[in-house]
Amino acid sequence: MGALLPPPNRRPMFAQVYINDPDMEAHVAIRAYNNVFAFTSMGSSHTRSLNVDERVTRSGVYNFCVQGSVCHRMGALLPPLNRRPMFAQVYINDPDMEAHVASRMGMTDGLDPAILEKIDQVMNAHNGYTQQFLNARRLLIDRAGPAYQAAVEQFARQLVAGEARPGDNPALRLNEFLPRDEDLRLRLHVARNANPGTHNVPTASKVAAIIIDRAAADHRDIILNTRQGGIKRIFETSESYDPLQYPLLFPYGEPGWTYDLPYVGNPVDSNGKPLTMSLREYESYVLHDRTASKSLILRGSRLTQQYCVDQWAKCEQERLRFIEKNQLQYRLETLQGLTDTAERICRLAANEEVAQRWIYGYYAAITGHRDSTEPEAENIGRKVIIPPTFTGGPRYMYQRFLDAMAIVRETGAPNLFITMTCNPNWPEIKENLRPGEKASDRPDIVARVFMQKLKTLNNDLDEGLLDVVAARIHV
Fold first, then answer.
1. In what order do the strands lie in the sheet with 66-74?
2. What is the rounded CA–CA span in Å between residue 334 and residue 323?
3. Cβ contacts of residue 406 below 8 Å, gap of 6+?
4. Where is the Helitron helicase-like domain (predicted)?
């Protein structure tokens, strides 16, 4: 079944603010603008910084790269004393729009305050996460009590007299005025529309809630503490994973993918179990323009590239997590050859008991486990077997190598080594770009055109364009 999502009930206003004009400065530096409005930080084993990102792209084709596993993180609601607020803390810590703009300009150099203010206005008015963080700020101010209000009034008088210093602003020291036992938490929990055939803009109450009771949270919720709790990782299966990291691509806080996301119409399988959409199906659907609805994600230029890389890494991590959770199946497959050998020994020795001791003794030697083929959960550092079905894994590459060598052994050494590269000036690519777009802004178009041309080339070779083809290997 192909993936099918309801059309978004999205007003075009937000896109017109900063995306529809490709010459706008916000479009060129869209990753920087998204970064200062994001609620979460994005990290990997290696990610190029925004400053390096801009320097590299001045002299060549832009590309976004990460290395290793990718993760999104959130900290406490309030920063430590005398520390600049970052990411979601800006919504809690800064008292007004002017302070929001100042904090965000301090996070990344070279941003236009007028554009920051315009985006901030729209986010405050329409983004459900922003509204709930602002609600949390108001509640924290109420709990700070009269001392905080008095400090705010005193700071205002100092500003008028020209005696104020930046560190005197009580809004940046809200931590000092809260009771020591303050235990306010913000619970991020997405409540999807009861009717999956609609995709209305989520309200603040549907994406977050302010809670006091620690036990009043679901295991899938994200709980942010006022002061402590450390850095929390937002897992890939959370519906908040994407809207928290990409507020400019999900301006209304629309929920992203989760593992139990149903298809439109709630279809079921033969056993009556609801059919759910895989992450790959979801991304294939949202990264596609349609006549009735244009994808806002594909308007993000360099931010679109970051989103695509992030989602590909998420797909890989989900596949690896599935493999890790189903190790018994893969371990038994790897032991099949060992079992066959033991059976031959058993037949030769005519002694099944000897063969069984050999099997379990050898397995215990390599796993440290004697009673079962399933390793114990507490066995830290256990080996995880990645099967050959995982594209790019060591067993996958080894099997492809063996297949290639078998073909060479049968047909002889290859005669031609052909390399096909993509040309961003192909007319099929340029005809489908919007005004002001470059090929690097639309990886979806480039990938489709390249695959069509690659298939055409392979068909021509198979039909004898250069000569009769005995065998062909391609990567």
1. 41-47, 66-74, 232-234
2. 14
3. none
4. 282-473
pLDDT given for residue 30 in this prediction? 82
pLDDT tens profile 136-164 = 777 777 777 788 788 878 877 877 777 77
**pLDDT for the residue numbered 214:** 45
SS3 of 418, please?
A: coil
Residues 6+ apart with CB under 8 A from 219: none
Q: What mean pLDDT is predicted for residues 250-265?
A: 84
Q: Alpha helices of 197-335 — where are they, by DSSP H?
A: 204-207, 241-245, 279-286, 302-325, 327-334
Q: How confident is the model at residue 340 (pLDDT cuts 50, 70, 90)?
A: low
- Angle (deg, nearest 10), helices 302-325 and 327-334: 70
Closest CA to 192 of 182, 181, 203, 184: 203
Cβ count near 277 (within 10 Å)? 22
**Alpha helix stretches (DSSP H) within 145-219:** 146-161, 174-177, 204-207
Radius of gyration of the chain, Cα coordinates, nearest whole angstrom: 28
* pLDDT of amino acid 262: 85
CA gap 97, 91 in Å, rounded: 9
Contact 252, 202 (CB under 8 A): yes
Q: What is the dihedral of CA 111, 249, 316, 443, to 10 degrees?
A: -80
Distance CA 447, CA 468 (A): 29
Cβ atoms of 190 and 42 closer than 8 Å: no
- Sheet of 222-225: strands edge to edge? 208-211, 185-188, 222-225
